[in-house]
Amino acid sequence: MAADAFVSPFHFTRQFSRATGEPPVALKRRVLLERAVWELSTGKSVTDVAFGAGYDSVEGFSRAFSAAFGHPPSLTPADERRRWLPTSNGIHFHPPMSLWVTNAPNEQVVADPTTLLIRHDIDDTRELLSVAAQLDESQYRCVRFPGLLVESFRGPEESIATVLAHLIESKEVWLAAIDGEDIPTAAGDALPELVKRHERVAVRWLDTIRDLTRRGGWDDTLIDALCEPPQSFVIGSVIAHVLSYSTHRRYLVRHWLRTELSIAGTEIGDGDPIEWLHQRG
Known about the structure:
Layout (H helix, E strand, L loop, with lengths): L8 H12 L3 H18 L4 H7 L5 H12 L21 E4 L3 E4 L11 H20 L4 H5 L18 H20 L11 H25 L5 E4 L6 E4 H27 L11 H8 L1
Antiparallel strand pairs: 1-2, 3-4
Helix pairs in contact: 3-4, 5-8, 5-9, 7-8, 7-9
């Protein structure tokens, strides 16, 4: 590209980055990942998409994809919804082989606090579910705080099993309201099922956040006619509500897991977004 512009690579990169807010290599990588998620949604294999995106291995592609979208390539839903990654310049992939440039970019960048908290919540929940797998059934279901209410309308959350279930259920219920679906029926709290439910809801949750960010929908209002009487909710406050209670539940579970597993020598991180971001590189 530098040669076509009749400038040195150094000068081209500097000018390109200044104009777009993104180095050319980073922009290309991001746009190819946006193309990749679309191709996966149309049924292409992970292997074909990985090499088409310029990766030397499926493993390398999977790591980059998971870091970008918050879930592995294999969990990409089979719908051709637009899935754009955050950028300040509004340049995105547009199927099948085009670019779309938004007129007035209104997007969060990766280091935006809201984006960090949302992505950290998903990854931290995944980590806690993984650690909980080390518990036996009695430890998993042991009543630790009789009568504990996190949200009064959800009932007591007295065990690791119940708190983890409500952590996931909260997103499922609010997504159903946002997407105009029936409120999901109460599901079990067996750990293997919670892991599957978390991975499913994480994809939809992140898709919803990206869509709200792209169209500036944080101030939109949801009027829920299923409530008696009907209630209205500002979407931004809904996301803040979910994140607030999710944070409380995660640290509650983290404390209980440490109580159970400290003797066994299991190290459980602090759940610090700073450390999480460092580990992501």
